[in-house]
Amino acid sequence: MNIIEVQNVTKKYSNHLALDNISLAIRKGIVYGLLGPNGAGKTTLIRILNQITAPDSGMVFFNGNPLSRKDIEKIGYLPEERGLYKKMKVGEEAMYLARLKGLSKNEALERLKYWFIKFEIQNWWNKKVEELSKGMQQKLQFITTVVHRPDFLILDEPFSGLDPINTNLIRQELLELKRQGTTIIISTHNMASVEEICDEICLINKAHKILEGNLVEIKQQFKENIYSLTLDSEREIPMLSEIYNVMETSSSENRRHYVVKVLEGGSANQLLQHVMNYGNILSFNEILPSMNDIFIQQVEKYNSELKMDNKSR
Amino acid sequence: MNNTLLIISREYLTRVKKKSFIILTLVVPILFAALMVVPVLLATKGREHVNVMVVDDNDIYINNFTDDAKTSFSYRSGDIEQIKKEALAGDYDVVLYFPRSSQKVNANLYYTEEPSMYLRSELESQINSLFFDYVLQDSFNIDLDKYNTIKDLSRSQITMIQIDENGVEKESMAELNKTIGMICGFVIYFFIFLFAGQVLRGVLEEKNNRIVEVLISSVKPIELLLGKIVGIALVGLTQFLIWIVFTLVILTAVQFAMPDKFMEMSGVDTEQIMESVKDSQLIETVNTSKMAAGDTFDTGNIFAEISSYFPISFTEMILCFLFYFLTGYLVYSALFAAVGSAADNETDSNQLTMPITMPLLLTIVMVMPIADNPNGQLAFWLSIIPLTSPVAMLTRLPSGVPLWELLLSMVLMLLFFVFVVWFAAKIYRTGILMYGKKVSWKEIWKWVRYQ
Predict the structure, then answer these.
(1) Is B55 helix (H, G, I), strand (E, B) or coil?
(2) Is B217–A86 a contact, with Cβ atoms under 8 angstroms apart?
(3) How close is the nearest chain A Cα to the Cα of B45, in Å?
(4) Are strands A2-12 and A57-62 parallel, antiparallel or unpaired?
(5) pLDDT at B8
(6) Distance CA B220, CA B228 (A)
(7) Which B-chain residues 273-312 have CB contacts (< 8 A) with chain A?
């Protein structure tokens, strides 16, 4: 079951195309990474999901029905540019934002209490927001994003500006929310965090979707049959570089380390059979491409194709 | 709707709880009251009994000055230096000396403690009239009694009577109307700007600290816009209410504390009214009201009395003020909000608000001409055009405005308000999401035409 389905959405601003016929689907209960370079159209897509702006054409479905104002209470949004009223008291501000999401006074108070105790920030309640440090404000902002228990969370760069301890805290909370069934969409440039928590990703570049799918499957799809192996001997292996593409070698303390690419038609087993004659294999791993590599590679590929296209026209 | 109420209450409460609001709300009535009380106290303070020693080397004024309750005159002749010394050391407060000269109206006034302003003008007017009589007799040989008879007979009086559309005649006080009109015009101008400016700053604040994106993921931009505008309007109305109540309370308290002084003030006021009206019938009514007021001074009666000379009642005036304040504020605050949403900071916004504030500034410059000729072409058109009508109409109102003009102006104002909110909302919802871009009016026009 998909919580969000985006169908053929196009959004044009006066002088440029922000989204060109984008379609995507987000399954319930997963963490979905929305990736793409700056200006790719991620923010526009997020704003459409939040109903801040409407698409020029195309449809968005929420739980199978066209997205409407009443769904707002089921969506939580943490924008990239964080903002709070600086002059308000922490408690008042949290109550205000919670109630704007449709919580009653009592509900809001009860749930905020839970979060304030959980984050150990009860004594901030009567402080002014401007007295808090930046990290503290981020915590407060996170609480106001999730306090109404949204089914669907939209987080734009949730880890930017957080110290490692708070990053970890927020990550744990996100995984906890996911366990409870919340669907989370994360827009980020931080590829390490994508690999850590995303189940599926979508890569957008220049208003187009250029890649979508399960994170593990995508990595498999883009794997280049590269393996790292370590032998207990520093002896040269004859013929290795003739048959395989040896990308890296290094040796230390009677060990030799290789990064080897198996060319078309070859296999990992053949490689193993070949090298096992020259020493004991201490380790053998497949090296999958990092999201970072895939991101850069795919975006560059798309851009150069686009250039070629334009030239040939 | 629920969300709009939440926004209204936040906008209202955060402002009302601010220290600056509380201070301003408390200080202004005190200033108002002080403005009314202090001149009275100052005026009464200097009016103690004054003994004047007159020395006239020309022998014109000797024994001719008239004593009154606060001034008595004595006369001596001789060496001024010696008289001066003796008189000021003795029972006399001032010495009025006319040196021998061809300019027989000129005099010196010697004193050790500065006398009140009233004494000087009192002396000057007595000297003028005494000298006038002297010249009549001495140079033209005219009999004073005959002259005074003729003078009394030939005193023209013009009573201003305005006829309204029902044919009812009413005596008007053009000067007072003009002044009140100008004050009303300035006051409404000031308040429209004060509170519409708060809307502008509020929009800029939300945009600058980026909370606006969180907000409009929860509420519609129009709800946010209306919530802010209505919330601040309520702040304004609260402030008015407190000001009015507090000023009355303070004035009443002061009156109770010093009843004598205010009897005098009411006397002065009535005299002024009598003078400006110069109508025997009016003087009679005012006199009766003064008597009816009796020993304790009654503000209400005087107000009622004054208001009976206006073509428009106080209640109507206050209702019109509230109507034009509210609609004027709504129109300007919606426009300011639109501009605030398009700007990134206050400097940019000032540039963009210029074309909007021009009509209002223009009307303020025109307040004097409008008050001078409240039924002229200029006054008529400015009080019909929505952007200028709050100030222009308020300036005209005390002098009387035909009902159809008032209704036309109000209807146009309401229609314009609906249009402006629609227009401003279109700019606002696009503007609040635009960052780091200096926006031109051309660009804003594009936003209006977006779907």
Answers:
(1) strand
(2) no
(3) 48
(4) antiparallel
(5) 94
(6) 13
(7) none
Strand stretches in chain A, DSSP E: 2-12, 17-27, 31-35, 57-62, 65-66, 75-78, 152-156, 183-187, 200-205, 208-214, 226-231, 245-252, 255-261, 281-287
Is the Cβ–Cβ distance between A33 and A186 less than 8 Å?
A: yes
- ipTM topping 0.90: no
C-alpha gyration radius of chain B:
30
Residue of chain B minimizing CA distance to A87: B14
* Distance in angstroms (rounded) separating the CA atoms of residues A139 and B170: 70
Q: Which of A52, A84, A143 to mutate to test the interface with B (most CBs of B within 10 A)?
A: A52
First to last CA, chain A: 42
State the Rg of chain A over Cα.
24
Residues forming a β-bridge with A248 = A259
Q: Among A56, A82, A144, whose Cβ lies nearest the Cβ of B210?
A: A82
Judged by a CB distance cut-off of 8 A, whether residue B218 touches chain A is yes
CA nearest neighbour of A111 among A130, A91, A127 = A91
Per-residue pLDDT of chain A in tens (313 residues, 90 and over written 9) = 889 999 999 998 777 888 999 999 999 999 999 998 888 889 889 989 988 888 889 999 999 999 988 888 899 999 887 788 888 999 999 999 999 988 999 999 999 999 999 888 889 899 999 898 888 888 899 999 999 999 999 999 888 888 888 889 999 999 999 999 999 999 988 888 888 889 999 999 988 998 889 988 988 888 888 899 898 887 778 777 778 888 888 888 888 888 988 887 788 888 888 888 888 889 999 888 888 888 888 888 888 888 888 777 6
Which residues in A lie closer than 8 A to residue B435 (C-beta atoms)? Answer: 81
Type of residue at A286:
E
- Supply the pTM of this predicted model: 0.72
Q: Locate all alpha helices (DSSP H) within A26-133, ordered by sequence.
A: 42-49, 90-100, 105-118
Q: Which of residues 35-54 of A touch B (CB under 8 A)?
A: 47, 50-53
Q: What burial letters (b/e) apply to A39-64, b meaning 16+ CB within 10 Å?
A: ebbbbbbbbbbbbbbebeebebebee
List of residues 6+ apart from B415 with CB closer than 8 A = B386
Residue range B166-216, pLDDT digits in tens:
777 766 667 777 888 888 888 888 888 889 989 998 998 888 888 888 888
Place of tokens 């290094």: A250
Distance CA B142, CA B155 (A): 19
A:B CB pairs within 8 Å = 56
Question: Cβ of A83 and B211 within 8 Å?
Answer: yes
CA A173 to chain centroid, in Å, comes to: 15
B134, B142 contact by CB (below 8 A): no
Give the residue ranges of chain B where pLDDT is below 70. 1, 40, 42-47, 164-165, 170-173, 258-313, 436-438, 450-451
Instruction: Kindly provide the residue ranges of all beta strands, DSSP E only, lying in B168-312, ordered along the sequence.
Output: 169-171
Pairing of strands B161-163, B108-111: unpaired
Distance CA B52, CA B115 (A): 11
